[in-house]
Design a protein that fits this description.
There is one protein chain. Strands 18, 20, 21, 23 and 25 form a five-stranded antiparallel beta sheet that branches. The protein has strands spanning 5-8, 12-14, 19-20, 26-27, 31-35, 41-43, 48-51, 55-63, 68-77, 80-86, 93-97, 101-110, 125-129, 135-139, 146-151, 155-163, 171-178, 186-190, 200-205, 215-228, 235-239, 245-252, 257-258, 264-266, 273-279, 294-302, 306-315. By secondary structure, it is an all-beta fold. The protein is rod-shaped. The protein has no helices and 27 strands.
């Protein structure tokens, strides 16, 4: 049994009334249709109901000579003016990894005097994607206002939704998709090296005026981000978050030592970089030349980032 009617202004729907006995068998009867407030809707003798103006009223149906009256609420909306589409967080875009999904909801609003319009229920929607190789969209079988977007491949796609049979502009939702990670998800970089996590040579010109000269080895920790690098097709690198402990350790040679009190330091300032000062052994000669001339290897490591080995070469410096 029909419990409510939703119409747009000037939209019509045809209703068919039948009478039956308690056992379900049909009963011959005549019906009279009526509208409680004709300012909002009109009904013809054959059961055709038409929306007249924005508002609510009641449709009445009487079974002639039998004392049976039925009332059905009618709500009439103005024409569809605007369509909106959002995700669960009320966002208008999202970044997904291949295989990921996001649920979207479309809403049709009328030409109400209110700034945001009044939501119109019962509208049928149609969904589309600008690039199915990047993202596909599938409407819910039971409710076309709901749809699921599935990420398929690297790139960007626009998901659009329209109201079937209405002239309102389509609503759009932007999707950026990145592929499954290729290669390492994290790395350590020393001195802006473009070959991370491999042995590196760092030359230090030793200052003979002090045992602990202020030479610095800086390590930058990086992880993959959600953004796709257009040149490599992989996710781009970004600095790690604060609070990651980095271990600096001399693993061979005697030309240098870790001059800081603690071998472990933490990244700070959001730049993902940790550093230590490299000092020289206390056996500097009386000639003013450091006794630690030669090569040493420093291991730099961080949990979740692996390790990198830095070969440090200490050269002689003239006495001041």
């Amino acid at each position: 049994m029909l419990t409510t009617i939703v119409l747009l202004v000037d939209e019509s729907t045809h209703l068919l009334a039948k009478a039956g006995s308690q056992d379900g068998s049909p009963v011959l009867a005549s019906f009279t249709w009526g509208i409680e407030d004709a300012a909002f809707a009109d009904v013809e003798a054959n059961g055709t109901v038409t929306g007249v103006s924005n508002g609510s009223t009641m449709l009445t149906l009487s079974v002639d000579g039998r004392g049976i009256d039925i009332e059905i609420p009618i709500t009439v909306y103005k024409a569809v003016d605007t369509i909106t589409v959002t995700d669960a967080a009320d966002g208008s875009s999202s970044t997904l990894q291949v295989g990921g999904t996001v649920a979207l909801t479309a809403t049709a609003l009328d030409e109400s005097d209110a700034d945001s319009g009044v939501e119109i229920p019962g509208i049928e929607f149609e969904w589309d994607t600008s690039d199915p190789s990047v993202a596909t969209v599938e409407a819910d079988d039971d409710n076309s206002a709901m749809a699921t977007v599935t990420a398929k491949g690297d790139g960007e796609a626009t998901i659009s939704v329209t109201a079937v049979g209405h002239d309102a502009d389509a609503a759009e939702y932007e999707v950026t998709v990145f592929d499954v990670i290729q290669g390492p998800a994290s790395r350590i970089i020393i001195a802006e090296s473009v070959i991370p996590n491999l042995p590196l040579n760092v030359e230090i010109n030793a200052d003979s005026s002090a045992v602990d000269a202020a030479a610095v080895v800086a390590a930058t920790l990086q992880r993959r981000t959600g953004a796709v690098d257009a040149d490599t097709g992989m996710r781009a690198w970004a600095a790690a978050a604060d609070g990651v402990d980095v271990m600096f350790e001399v693993v061979s040679g005697s030309s240098v030592r870790i001059a800081t009190a603690e071998a472990t330091t933490a990244t700070s300032g959001g730049n993902g970089t940790a550093q230590v000062s490299i000092g020289f052994p206390a056996d500097a000669t009386s000639t003013g030349v450091t006794g630690g001339v030669g090569k040493s290897v420093i291991k730099v490591s961080a949990e979740g980032y692996g390790a990198i080995y830095v070969e440090v070469t200490v050269t002689r410096a003239a006495s001041s």
